[in-house]
Each structure stands twice: as C-alpha cells, then as structure tokens.
Design the sequence.
C-alpha cells in the first residue's frame, strides 16, 4: 500500500521483518501520525497484537509468524512462544493458523525467516486474488458499505473487504463507499477512511447507527471482512456487523464477507462455537484516558459478533466467490 513516511510516498506493508527486528506501522496513532514501531522479541510482539498496535486477522497472523521467528532468534522455547502468541486475541483464527504453520514448518527443518516471509507473501497474494474475484460484484456507480477496517493495514496489503473496492476503483469504475465509524475504537473512521484518502476513493464516514438509514436510501452492496468463519458459513467480524447483515437481508441488499482460507475454521461447526473477545470497558467509557461516562456506570465491550450464514449472500475468497453452503470447497485449497 502507498503511505507517506518521512515526507515521501512509499510502498509499504503493514509490517515486515528487517534484520533482527520486525517493523510495523503503529495503527493506534493513525490517521494523524504515521510511525514505525520496532519489535525485537516475542513478548513485545504478543503485546503489540494484544494492544492492537497491529490488528486485522490476516495481519495478526503475519505478526504471529514473525513473532515465532523472534522467539527462535532469542532462544525461547517455541511451544511457550506459541502459547503466548495464541493467548493474545481469541477470536481471530489467522493467529492460530499462522502459529501452527510456523511450528510445523520449523519442525521440518525450514528456516524460520523464510517460512514467515513465505507466509506473509502468500497472504498478500491471496488478498490480491480476493480483490480480483470480488471486483466483478461491484457495478459502475455502486454505493458500497463496509465496516471496521479490512484493508491493507489489516492484511499487510490489498485488504479483504477493501480489495474488491480497490480493484474496481483501479479499473476505472466510479463508486462511493459508506465507511462505518466502528465503535468504540473507530477503526473505520481512523483506518478505512485513511486508506480511502490515500487511494483517492470517494467515501463518507457514517455513524454505525446510520447504517440502516443508508441501506434503505440505496446502498448497492455490503462487503465486510471476517475474523473466523465456521464450517456452516457463520462468521465473526467486528461488533456491529450482525446488525448490518440483518438490515441488508431485510432490504434486499447483497451482503458479502471476504477472507482468505486462513480465516476458515472448519473444526467449528457453527458460529455458536466461535469465542468472542471481550475487551476493557475503558475503551467504551474513556477517550484518550478521560472518563466520558458517568462514574459508576458499567460498560460491556465485545469486540466481535457472529453473523449467521442465512444472512450471507457469498464469501469472497482467493479461490472465488462461494456460497455459505459451499465452505467445504476451501478444505482442499492450499494456504502456502
């Protein structure tokens, strides 16, 4: 993705391995500051995943893969490193997939750095293919709604939900994107809108609660990302996705999720089995450390909700667009 660093427009991934450290864009500081953070050990990588310095399921997976490289370099027990990394974000399946991939490939004697780089390269290519397959779903002049950030920042490059939008825009299709602000951490407003500005794609930020309003006024398609997809096509994504799916279904608006095969968890029969991460109430009650809620008020802060497959028109993957009933098709597809 193109991003301004040191006063210059550069092509950068959200994170990469450079020498003995991992460099990543600190997503907590966007959109007003573009700062690179250097990670030198597995413990700090785990904290970067936990505190959302890096976020988005595929990017979390790549971060975990590089975290395993750092663990090996520092002489850390690899099983302990795997356990630590897996403890950071319970919902995102890519995290578990990437750590298991690294354990398996290193056990076969493959160089850790080469394995992690291959994993990252594969994620980027799969996201490019998601864009290629999903672009045809977006008509000229389409009004597209998305939620949270499933762009290059969340996936190293291209994106999942944003990949078809990017591909359509680069093909010259006029379009407009409704960007849900995404409470309480504002990833839509801070990150997706940031990517839209960098690409020059027409868009507007909308309050999460305004989604139904704009769906009824004439949204043509909804495309969101996913953090885990069960065997029956149910999927978990950022909190607020379920509401959009139900409203889109009621109003006859096609609703798609986009994800690489690493996001599919075929061991889980349905979305009822997907663990939902609950984050600190202070993300809801405080802004920049300042209390905005009444003292004594509790807050509930689930990071994700589950959308049942009956509300899903299709799933955009690197092997094509499939129906929820066709999730079995990804079983034989290779990740790397």
Sequence:
């Amino acid at each position: 993705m193109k991003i301004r660093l040191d006063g210059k427009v550069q092509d950068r991934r959200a994170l990469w391995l450079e020498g003995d450290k991992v460099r990543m864009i600190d997503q907590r500081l966007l959109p007003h500051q573009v700062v690179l953070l250097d990670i030198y050990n597995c413990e700090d990588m785990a904290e970067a995943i936990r505190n959302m310095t890096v976020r988005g399921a595929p990017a979390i997976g790549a971060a975990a893969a590089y975290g395993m490289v750092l663990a090996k370099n520092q002489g850390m027990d690899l099983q302990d490193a795997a356990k630590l990394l897996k403890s950071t974000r319970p919902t995102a399946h890519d995290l578990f997939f990437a750590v298991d991939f690294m354990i398996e490939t290193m056990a076969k004697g493959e160089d850790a750095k080469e394995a992690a780089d291959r994993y990252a390269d594969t994620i980027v290519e799969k996201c490019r293919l998601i864009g290629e397959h999903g672009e045809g779903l977006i008509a000229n002049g389409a009004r597209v709604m998305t939620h949270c950030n499933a762009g290059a920042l969340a996936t190293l490059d291209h994106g999942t939900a944003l990949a078809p939008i990017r591909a359509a825009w680069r093909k010259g299709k006029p379009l407009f994107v409704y960007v849900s602000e995404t409470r309480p951490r504002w990833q839509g407003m801070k990150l997706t809108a940031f990517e839209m500005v960098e690409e020059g794609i027409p868009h507007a930020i909308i309050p999460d609660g305004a989604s139904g309003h704009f769906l009824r006024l004439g949204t043509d398609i909804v495309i969101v990302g996913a953090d885990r997809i069960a065997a029956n096509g149910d999927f978990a994504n950022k909190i607020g996705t379920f509401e959009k799916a139900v409203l889109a279904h009621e109003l006859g608006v096609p609703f798609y999720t986009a994800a690489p095969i690493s996001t599919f968890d075929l061991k889980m029969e349905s979305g009822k089995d997907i663990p939902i991460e609950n984050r600190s109430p202070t993300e809801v009650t405080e802004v920049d450390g300042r209390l905005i809620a009444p003292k004594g008020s509790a807050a509930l802060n689930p990071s994700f909700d589950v959308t049942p497959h009956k509300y899903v028109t299709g799933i955009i993957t690197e092997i094509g667009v499939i129906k929820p009933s066709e999730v079995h098709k990804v079983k034989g597809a290779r990740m790397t």
Remarks:
- The chain has a mean pLDDT of 96.
- Residues 133-330 form a domain with the Rossmann fold fold (CATH 3.40.50.10470).
- The longest helix spans residues 112-134.
- The radius of gyration is 19 Å.
